[in-house]
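worker-3 :: picked Heme oxygenase
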Amino acid sequence: MLAALRTGTRDHHLALERDLDLPGRIRTRADLAAVLSALLAAWAPLERDLAAADWSGLRLDPRLGAATGLLRADLAALGIAQAAGDGREDGGVRFDTRARAVGGRYVLLGSALGGSVIAPVVERRLGLAEGEATGFFRRSGRAPGRDWRDFRVALTAGEWPPAELAEAAEAARATFTFVGRTAAPLLRAA
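worker-3 :: tokens ->
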């Protein structure tokens, strides 16, 4: 499953990295606030929809790796007030099967790996203390390594027919696309 996801999303992953340009686009606290706000607009509905997905047959917490609260806390640390809601009503990605939910979770969990590289650069550039308004990137108070291990173990515990591998990869691509489609316009406007 993981190999199918990695191979099936490589181009989408690279496109999103190019569109978001992190940490490059973060030069000021206002830039950081804009990035965090844009990511919150994408993350909140995706995490909400993934938590409601059918995870039967997998020994995984439906909220594994949840980070929306960290985005909100980082924005609060920057003095940015956020609406109480969870962003868009429709996350825009179907997580209506176990395989599709796995594809979406793969993208969100994988983002923690990139965040661990982004956080120190942003902190140094903006003169922030470790974890100051970068809790989302660092996954402060979370255990992204353990989350990734638990995810990997759960996926390898079962068989994944080719149709489910394809579904998972399609949902992961749709998740990358949703993040880009949601965040990029907000970043251009900022």
